[in-house]
Amino acid sequence: MSNGLIPATILTGFLGSGKTTLLKRVLTEAHGQKIAVIENEFGEENIDNDILVMDSQEQVIQMSNGCVCCTIREDLRSTLADLAEKRRKGELDFDRVVIETTGLADPGPVAQTFFMDDEIAESYLLDSILTLVDAKHADQQLDTRQEARRQVGFADQIFISKTDLVDEGSVHELTHRLKHMNPRAPQQKVHFGEVPLAQVFDLRGFNLNSKLEIDPEFLSADEHDHDHGHDHDHDHEHGEHCDHPHHHAHDDDVKSFVFRADRAFNAAKLEDFLGSIVQVYGPKLLRYKGVLLMKGSDRKVIFQGVHQLMGSDLGPKWLPGEKKQSKMVFIGIDLPREILLQGLEGCLV
């Protein structure tokens, strides 16, 4: 990394989805890369510690003190600070960090740790959140556990494991369901954790500017979205594009919607509106992200957030002949879609 920051990846997913398999695979395949692994698992989950250390010669730091959402932030913060310090002193040598969270964790606080603490922010770059979904048990887990739905909502990249154990129709339905919850995370089937490293690391899911240069399709929302005539796409939730009869069985509380507008935003109004939205709905907002056309600026403004933490950044200039348009995607739990859409509409020039 040219800027000297240590890339960090958060690996999340439900119990049994194959996180450890994927992790082991990545560690053994990471030729020439030294990876520090931070594990945060509940007691009985700590079975693979010895194997990981033996296989990969990595430093594994085990954190077995319960739930990430309450206690781990400080633990994680001090662990990350400690690792960075040892690396600076030359006591430890590693190129990147992978944090494997427990199957019951909300990745939000883990992600927030990278932005809340100056020391961490100066040492690490949060690269992406990877979520592993077990095709065989996904429907039941998504139906019964909000944590599973949250993990899907947070993902920058979704890996679907165990697709060989279910029929193709079920996999198709699952990918549809996940797409509704999180249109911005690419999905990929994995077999026994066999994932090329290029699809695991340096995805730049959180790194605003480069994401747009790397992936021009960023925020094209739904591949079925032909509705480009309107300011925003209302077909997204109603599923007119779904050709699958069982598709409406799931009305998940984690939903996404996209806002598009060709008119520019008034910066002050937008800042006020988003500020108040984040104050009120922060805990229910999982991820939100956008490329914005601002009045008076010849550059794209790129913004994103996790829960209550919101940040924006000046992006590249709008190119001559490029269609100038704001696009935003919000992923959250029972978000008041109309309030948001109307509010955003009211911030346009």
UniProtKB/TrEMBL annotation:
<feature type="domain" description="CobW C-terminal">
    <location>
        <begin position="254"/>
        <end position="348"/>
    </location>
</feature>
<dbReference type="InterPro" id="IPR003495">
    <property type="entry name" value="CobW/HypB/UreG_nucleotide-bd"/>
</dbReference>
<feature type="region of interest" description="Disordered">
    <location>
        <begin position="221"/>
        <end position="247"/>
    </location>
</feature>
<keyword id="KW-0547">Nucleotide-binding</keyword>
<comment type="similarity">
    <text>Belongs to the SIMIBI class G3E GTPase family. ZNG1 subfamily.</text>
</comment>
<dbReference type="Pfam" id="PF07683">
    <property type="entry name" value="CobW_C"/>
</dbReference>
<dbReference type="InterPro" id="IPR027417">
    <property type="entry name" value="P-loop_NTPase"/>
</dbReference>
<dbReference type="Pfam" id="PF02492">
    <property type="entry name" value="cobW"/>
</dbReference>
<keyword id="KW-0143">Chaperone</keyword>
<comment type="function">
    <text>Zinc chaperone that directly transfers zinc cofactor to target proteins, thereby activating them. Zinc is transferred from the CXCC motif in the GTPase domain to the zinc binding site in target proteins in a process requiring GTP hydrolysis.</text>
</comment>
<dbReference type="InterPro" id="IPR036627">
    <property type="entry name" value="CobW-likC_sf"/>
</dbReference>
<dbReference type="InterPro" id="IPR011629">
    <property type="entry name" value="CobW-like_C"/>
</dbReference>
<keyword id="KW-0378">Hydrolase</keyword>
<dbReference type="InterPro" id="IPR051316">
    <property type="entry name" value="Zinc-reg_GTPase_activator"/>
</dbReference>
<protein>
    <submittedName>
        <fullName>GTP-binding protein</fullName>
    </submittedName>
</protein>
